[in-house]
């Protein structure tokens, strides 16, 4: 199904007076209003192909209805999201869950919805039917050269698919690690990983990047071979300028100061981008902003400040992607909430009075610094985000529109109530 | 010094047009506006006597200037806070740091500032000069009956001071615990604590309560004898109806769902009240709302809902107190920020559309439930809080007023730049 | 397959001189040697029926070979473990993964291997094919009475299966919880759970117990309705004397002092028993003793002391069960290592000089208390455990025997290399 | 006081038959026995000058008796430890707590006890009387160049003292960080720290090293400017070959895999050394090996393996130091227990069957790898450590000897019962 523009317009018309009142109220106090709106309008977050189906845990998976049965249907779903929120203009493919059988047709289908292809993702954390070697004991870090070779070749194949689709980055997340003390030689595992990544790096086209993700635990529970940002950065530095570090918000030990890591990676020119989600306990993969929205704001505060300092423009220099598991919620609703939370955090960060903050920092005035940050954070920026979206042709209230138009009901009618999308 | 009312009025006059615009905007959408404002106006948070001085860590303490040198000056400081925010009409004494030498004079001094005395706090975590037995190895849980007796007597003496001042609750926080496996018999420690608390309980006046605080670690680093809410509740149930559990926000293991504990203690009729602060790592004692304001809102959401369900009124049935350590900030500024954060969270919780939330819960609609909570949370309620304060005779912007009137500068002039208040 | 006794005897003969030298060395210093050996010989740990197959994570599952294809084959596997270690004389069934189609035949098969049936386990964390209501949003805590009823009936059915097999306890672990703030009313969820458990409690035969397990998170990631020992104990107390609290070692927030919880539950007469495993990050379900063996010893130290204080005998009063996920190891090898680690910890705890420890505690002599505990812990008790096993007819070195006899190779020959056992 | 050798000999004589029986039993199975004993004999751990007095927490400090009142008396205390355990032949000075007024006299006093001076430690986490600028808001990272300069000069002065005493390393631990979001610009703080460290680096003598310590939190509770090993390594790499990363075991977020960090720092040639202690919750500074002795063993396992791989010899290439806070125990007893725990872990690591472990790792045999590690760990090596100590002229049982000789009683007689040593 495709959401027709006139339906969105109708709903916007109904919501417009309430929206205008809110927007006018908040806009009056925004310095550089047009610049802020332009930045919000330009900001997009990629939707991963694995996020359109209901996720699960090791204890079970409770599928919803109308889940996409093919890559084409996944593109349709992202198209619906983009039609509503005008902030999700790309899709990030996971191989082999979503191998494009005909790249041109897939690109055309995406273009029809105004979509392009973001980073491609390899998978060496599962065994695929008929693969020669098992990844049970790891992939790029494996003690056996033949297994490493198989994993390297898989990554190179993923690059190939990405090239066909116009992508320009490979995102590598490794499950490689160990469950028990003694199982691994840590140095050996690191060196093997480095060697494997170097082979993949060699295969990168000139304009490509490789993003090295880290994670402290799960699915291995004693060690992970790329366990923290320090290890990822060490690898990225040894690899070269095309390699950098990807930050998944859920991949940190309890209480980690993620915003500081983001700031330092930006400083080093090694921040690849983000996998957005939220969590309370670990890699919980919950809706972005559902647990700790202030932390999300603090991260965007570092991004806005750090990218300004480097003269970076947002849309092109950093990868932004949702990475969550929608175990209970309708995946499309979850993604709409997630993108909205990200844009709210971004809008709040854009409202920070940078000059005043610098002055407070120079005076060690922690009270005032907090006031400045929280003044931006406590501002109700929802209508700013809505206005930017409205100007881009989206819905004032994407989630309400999604429900009002009964998109899920229509998808169930089209696809059935018992479909199960590929993914976790 | 005392902040004169006309100065606050002048500042309010300057701020009034901005305030009115904001208030009118947000008030238009508030159901039961007058009821919300009345609740906000009635809400007060006690200021502990130990919070008026600069705190410290085991690594050092960097005092500020103009700190109160006596209980009378501490009352003056709370008076200044109350004059500005009209939400801090009581003071919570810590004995023996602030023993009132003349109760009538102290009560009169407090009344002069519109203050009364909240819960009194005992201290068995330090040795006082000339005390017979040391609390090095604990107090109420001690293996030696004589030490327990000394600790019980101290608590009974604290009650006596409280009675003189018109307080009606004893707050007990124990540092009792162990640093090493084997040091303690856990059951013995629990039973000794219970026996000691029973003796204190017997000494409570009829209309008094005893609040049993819990904490997982620090200053002991292997076990704490009242380590979590389960242990505190076990004791409170064995003690009787006058005993209940006090929740200090910083006293939890990483990732604890505090709002669930609050909800269940309310259900059991055993929620004594709160020690408010914020933290990232442990008992960090930071400004309330400075690290995770959404969690604070979620706690207030449980409070509003749970107290309504029990027919409780806020001001009288639960103890509200700041408990923080102002290592870097001006203590009065920190307290003003903390009370403001609490009232903002409370105001947001009052805006939750309860009926809609119940409907969403009944339908397992997690998406809608989140929308409802976050709609309240994202509302900029600062002007609601300010309006309630204005009606009560306080400042629209307490912190700005404090700075504008140079209260600290005047205190330094009066008291000197090198004073050090009693406390941690 | 069945391991023939003479083969074990042969291997024991080869290992005997080395064993005897070790045993004689350590036994010389053991007070009450025969009593210690008798306790070790009498100590058994139940093997859960879901632990005989390779486990997995949400990211994938890498099956091994020769996994049991039926309950009968699972009993065979436990029989092999018991033949080797003589400490695993019971099996704990999980319904509906292992519904006994013919109870008499199953009992006979078990008896053939010297096995009986321990606690039975219900499952309301997954949907079974054709079940009327989904457990997607919980079971015993569900907002919908009809779903709760279905879950209660399932538990009652599990009791029925247990009665047929001679079991006398129902173990209840609930995945019930929420992923997002607002999704649940915590009090409502608790009250529904209590009501459901009361209905199950009513259906318990006279000599049965119900064990209430707790867990802070996973598979729900914001709240769990029975989240910690305090909540479980609250329920158990409201239910009555047949209800008590089950401790799964992996179900705790970071840094929790588990041994203190064990001690207090024993004190309250509400310790149901254990699910043993080990972990570094969360509910990692690793081999018992593989990550933090000293903590395991400290737990056994509390058990030995606390059970002595209550006059309890081990084998009958408390439930002991492995609960782990063998993602990488051969499940039988993992179970052999786990039982061995438990028995080593138990043996060490039996060596603690209790009288000296009490004296050190009475003197607040933390140095000496640590020396006493660590003297027991540092003693190499492996030969004591082996001697007890030898006397019971088991193997001196169960794991070495398992490998030497190529049990897995034979299982693969019998069952095939691509079997997948039911379970997680 | 000084412990006379003949008294130790007498006690050893009494303990010798028990020791010999134990030693002979365990030694029979040790490959390369003499090499193991030689390594144990050569292994020494520095005692910090601040560890001879009773520590405390922010809640209080309970001093013991007979604490050293001067640097000379601290040297005496370390001399007593060294006389007993022959593994503590150096002292690590903290400036300005222990400024040597006469370097030659201090060196002579140390030499008299067979002691030399290990790394010197600077202190910019407290303000000293009369210092011009305050370190309230940090030192090397400070926004104000003048404060940074003062901190740099202090470090250079510490080097000067170290040179006089024959030390050759500067250990830098910074409390620099922030308590609140917004207080700091993270990049600015990092760059200032780097610049300051470069100035200190320039002042290092040719044969000196600078050790850069990291810590995630405390005394700052939102961010630390050198917060983790990644940040420390980034600084060390930018500084040059004389700079490396110091690992304090207590300075990690919950559940951190410290042994992996140790392994990777060794791989990079950037492991400066250790501050040993143990902890359950955070930087608890408890006796080494009192909470998680298996983790300590795993760290030594990496050290033995990694240093062998680099051809390093232990005594000279890495810094080993205790860093703990003895709040409850007699400091000397705590230190004796700590050094013993370290040597036990080292001895166990030396017993690991390296060849078998490599084979198991090459086969991904996690079961066997665990068996190999735990076989070494479960071996009772106490008599090996004692034998090495005996050969070096120390006591078979240092702690028992300390008590038997009533060293503390004598110190109290000499120094008084109410002394308080400098330090935390």
UniProtKB/TrEMBL annotation, chains A, B, C, D:
Broadest EC class assigned to this enzyme: isomerase
EC numbers for this chain: 5.3.1.-, 5.3.1.14
Residue ranges annotated as coiled coil are: none
Keyword Metal-binding among UniProt keywords = yes
Q: Which Pfam families match?
A: AP_endonuc_2
Any idea where the Xylose isomerase-like TIM barrel domain is? 100-285
Q: Which UniProt keywords are listed? A: Isomerase, Manganese, Metal-binding
GO function terms (MF aspect): L-rhamnose isomerase activity
Which Gene3D superfamilies is this protein grouped with? Divalent-metal-dependent TIM barrel enzymes
Descriptive protein name: L-rhamnose isomerase/sugar isomerase
Q: Which organism is it from?
A: Mucilaginibacter terrae
């Amino acid at each position: 199904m495709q959401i027709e523009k006139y339906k969105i317009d109708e709903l916007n018309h109904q919501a417009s007076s309430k929206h205008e009142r809110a927007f006018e109220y908040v806009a009056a106090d925004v310095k550089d209003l047009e610049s802020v709106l332009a930045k919000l309008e330009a900001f997009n977050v990629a939707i991963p192909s694995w996020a359109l189906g209901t996720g699960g845990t090791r204890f079970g998976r409770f599928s919803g209805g109308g889940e996409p049965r093919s890559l084409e249907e996944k593109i349709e779903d992202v198209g619906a999201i983009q039609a509503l929120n005008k902030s999700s203009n790309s899709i990030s493919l996971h191989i082999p869950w979503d191998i494009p059988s005909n790249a041109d047709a897939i690109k055309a289908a995406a273009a029809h919805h105004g979509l392009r292809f973001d980073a491609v993702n390899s998978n060496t954390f599962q065994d695929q039917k008929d693969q020669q070697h098992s990844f049970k004991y790891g992939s790029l870090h494996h003690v056996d050269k033949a297994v490493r070779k198989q994993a390297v070749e898989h990554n190179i194949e993923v690059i190939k698919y990405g090239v066909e689709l116009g992508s320009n980055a490979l995102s590598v997340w490794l499950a490689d690690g160990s469950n028990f003390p003694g199982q691994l030689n840590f140095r050996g595992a690191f060196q093997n990983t480095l060697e494997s990544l170097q082979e993949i790096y060699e295969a990168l086209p000139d304009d490509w990047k490789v993003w090295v993700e880290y994670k402290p635990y799960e699915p291995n529970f004693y060690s992970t071979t790329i366990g923290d940002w320090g290890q990822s950065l060490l690898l990225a530095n040894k690899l070269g300028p095309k390699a950098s570090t990807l930050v998944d918000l859920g991949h940190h030990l309890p209480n980690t100061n993620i915003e500081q890591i983001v700031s330092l990676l930006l400083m080093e020119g090694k921040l690849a981008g983000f996998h957005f989600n939220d969590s309370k306990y670990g890699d919980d993969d919950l809706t972005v902003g559902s647990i700790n929205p202030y932390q999300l704001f603090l991260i965007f505060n570092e991004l806005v400040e750090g990218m300004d300092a480097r003269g970076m423009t947002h849309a092109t220099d950093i990868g932004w992607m949702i990475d969550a598991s929608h175990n209970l919620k309708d995946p499309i609703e979850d993604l709409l909430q997630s993108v909205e939370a990200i844009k709210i955090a971004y809008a709040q960060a854009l409202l920070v009075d940078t000059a005043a903050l610098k002055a407070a920092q120079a005076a060690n005035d922690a009270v005032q610094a907090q006031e400045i940050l929280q003044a931006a954070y406590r501002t109700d920026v929802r209508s700013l985000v809505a206005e930017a979206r409205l100007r881009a042709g989206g819905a004032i209230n994407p989630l309400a529109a999604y429900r009002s138009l009964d998109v899920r009901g229509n998808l169930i009618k089209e696809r059935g109530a018992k479909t199960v999308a590929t993914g976790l």
